[in-house]
UniProtKB/TrEMBL annotation:
<keyword id="KW-0456">Lyase</keyword>
<dbReference type="GO" id="GO:0000105">
    <property type="term" value="P:L-histidine biosynthetic process"/>
</dbReference>
<dbReference type="InterPro" id="IPR020568">
    <property type="entry name" value="Ribosomal_Su5_D2-typ_SF"/>
</dbReference>
<keyword id="KW-0963">Cytoplasm</keyword>
<dbReference type="InterPro" id="IPR020565">
    <property type="entry name" value="ImidazoleglycerP_deHydtase_CS"/>
</dbReference>
<dbReference type="GO" id="GO:0005737">
    <property type="term" value="C:cytoplasm"/>
</dbReference>
<dbReference type="GO" id="GO:0004424">
    <property type="term" value="F:imidazoleglycerol-phosphate dehydratase activity"/>
</dbReference>
<dbReference type="Pfam" id="PF00475">
    <property type="entry name" value="IGPD"/>
</dbReference>
<keyword id="KW-0368">Histidine biosynthesis</keyword>
<protein>
    <recommendedName>
        <fullName>Imidazoleglycerol-phosphate dehydratase</fullName>
        <ecNumber>4.2.1.19</ecNumber>
    </recommendedName>
</protein>
<comment type="pathway">
    <text>Amino-acid biosynthesis; L-histidine biosynthesis; L-histidine from 5-phospho-alpha-D-ribose 1-diphosphate: step 6/9.</text>
</comment>
<dbReference type="InterPro" id="IPR000807">
    <property type="entry name" value="ImidazoleglycerolP_deHydtase"/>
</dbReference>
<comment type="similarity">
    <text>Belongs to the imidazoleglycerol-phosphate dehydratase family.</text>
</comment>
<keyword id="KW-0028">Amino-acid biosynthesis</keyword>
<dbReference type="InterPro" id="IPR038494">
    <property type="entry name" value="IGPD_sf"/>
</dbReference>
Amino acid sequence: MRTAEITRSTKETQITVWLSLDGGPVEISTGVGFFDHMLNSFAVHGGLGLKVHTEGDLYVDCHHTIEDTGIVIGQALCQALGNKGGIQRFGSFFIPMDEALAFSSVDISGRPFLVFDASFPEESIGGYDSCMTEEFFRALAFQAGITLHLKCEYGKNSHHMTEAVYKAAAHALKAAVQETGAGVLSTKGIL
């Protein structure tokens, strides 16, 4: 069963995440409307079952809420992947969203890394700071132990650009976690 449930509680955030690599219900509640929209899109386009309940110090700003949610989703992803055997391992995808085009490539390698190349014209989208897109994906990639490349090739609307990035990441991840029935895809024999 490729599922995980993680709870993390700090002085800044209280987060519970349930994740299934093979689909299931999607229930998102973080207190940041646009972030909820992005996580919903990430789950639906990634073919994931995902339940996220986050209570954060939004009276400060959205930073801790979004970054810490990325940490916990990344931990759940790592746990659900187990020894990373029997999966495709690599995935890449382009997503057009109106005038915006985003690309993602992922390697479920056990080697955490993020390359992020996107500049958003608006600083915020509702209560979501555009700079938090990079922070979310960095937290997710490093906790999940994956190499993740994200690029918004072009765009003019921060909503479209950000949504394209989340959806591209979701589709790349969906391809990478596809079951192959083979062993660990590595010349080393382990990841």
